[in-house]
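Translate sequence into structure tokens.
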Amino acid sequence: MPTVTRPNSPTLLIGRLRWYVALVSGRVPTFLLVSLKGIVESPVKPVAVMLHPTAEKVLALLEPHIERQGYELVSVDFRKGTRNSILRLLVDKPGGGIALSDLEKLSPTLGDLLDVYDPVEGRYTLEVSSPGINRPLRKLEHFAAVKGERVKVRTHRARDGQKSFVGKLLSVSDTGIELDDETSRKRLTIGFDEMSGANYEYNFDK
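Result follows.
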């Protein structure tokens, strides 16, 4: 994986198949003038799938800033580690795919904001990435946008020994979805409170 370095800045790691920018957090003081207006007054958007508490905190802090720059924070993934955790921000560009140059431009700004707000305990690696072909589904609008398409849903608890469901998304409501499950060949109703995660599932057999 090629590495790009710049003086007095974090290391940028550039992946080939899935673009992302990663930087290791530090405790070096960073001074940044930040407006809190966007966070206080930003309208609450309907969220279907809840994230890890740390991820939810990061999302609430960063989403207004990212949207003001013309991008969308699709989701936040936080993986707690014993020595080093991973914080992954999945960012897209409405109306067109996000480019590597966009990620490189956003990464230092988001890193500075995280240093100022300090919402993550301990040492962690920050990755700023495109959502990829199997885009995560988090908001009601995400599910509504792929109605009739193939999706994958993961649940906290198993149903008849099954915790992962793949199939056509038949309908979306305020409380959950209906899915034509390919494994059980049944029409299932799954509540958003049952879900641990969900994503669009590209059908390579088409």
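Note: The chain has two domains: 3-129, 140-200.
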